[in-house]
Design goal:
mainly beta; 2 helices; 8 strands; Porin; 50% strand; 8-stranded antiparallel β-barrel
């Protein structure tokens, strides 16, 4: 019984020393590469032009050993098939179709395309002692937001008014300064095998049309836009730890 009693007291201490040895593997300064995917719901002027859409992204960042500060850069590519504006109304006949070179209705689809690229600053706030590299992830970012209406037509029913140069007069290309905030959870596992983040992403873009002339409006579009976007993003992280603490080993 006395032996079992001492074993019972030593079990928690053994677990703590094992955890310490494990989480030491993901300490030190680190370089984090990530790939991510997100679902977005737009608002403001962006919500008038496009519906819900998706994005894929990638990024590279530095995480400090002390304070768990995050410094990095990234890019997200937006795509979707919900378009709320019709820039081709002037080309449509009474039946709502557009006649192509083959004298039949052209198959034209409108799509949403865009991207965001920027630099960010943030912090990882640990939630427990067992793994200081897991907790609440908070970042703020500044960069460029750009989007346009992609005009996708069938080459068999080519429409001369929509060749590559004329499309620029209809695609409503817009871009401008943008800010993005992210709040979520990040895990950098003690054995380096499971590393991910997930959370809420908010974007505010101050954009304008970058085309000299809008064919459907018959003038240049000088409207100042406020583009809002709310999304839920999940990402996979590939970490590389550098510095002396990354190679330390603790034995008991």
């Amino acid at each position: 019984m006395r032996t079992y009693f001492w074993l019972f007291l030593l079990l928690p201490l053994t677990a703590m020393t094992q955890d310490y040895g494990e989480f030491d593997l993901n300490r030190g300064n680190g370089i984090l590469f990530n790939l991510s995917y997100a679902y977005h719901s737009p608002g403001g002027d962006l919500g008038k032009r496009f519906g819900d859409h998706f994005s894929v992204g990638s990024g590279l960042e530095f995480i400090s050993d002390k304070g768990h500060w995050l410094f990095g850069l990234g890019m997200n590519y937006y795509f979707g098939n919900q378009v709320g504006e019709n820039p081709l109304s002037a080309l449509q006949n009474d039946q709502g179709g557009i006649i192509g070179n083959n004298r039949s209705y052209a198959d034209i689809q409108l799509r949403m395309r865009g991207f965001y690229t920027g630099v960010h600053l943030g912090k990882l706030i640990p939630l427990g002692f067992a793994n200081p590299r897991s907790g609440i992830r908070v970042t703020v970012s500044a960069g460029l937001l750009q989007h346009k209406i992609r005009i996708q037509d069938d080459p068999l029913s080519f429409v001369p008014q929509l060749d590559e140069e004329y499309k620029k007069g209809y695609d409503r290309l817009s871009n401008g300064l943008s800010f993005t905030e992210f709040v979520g959870y990040q895990l950098l596992s003690t054995n380096k095998r499971i590393n991910f983040f997930a959370g809420l992403e908010l974007t505010q873009g101050f954009t304008m049309s970058r085309r000299d002339f809008d064919f459907s409006m018959r003038q240049q579009d000088t409207t100042e836009r406020l583009d809002l976007n709310v999304g839920f993003r999940v990402g996979w992280i590939l970490p590389f730890y550098v510095g002396e603490r990354a190679s330390e080993e603790v034995y008991y």
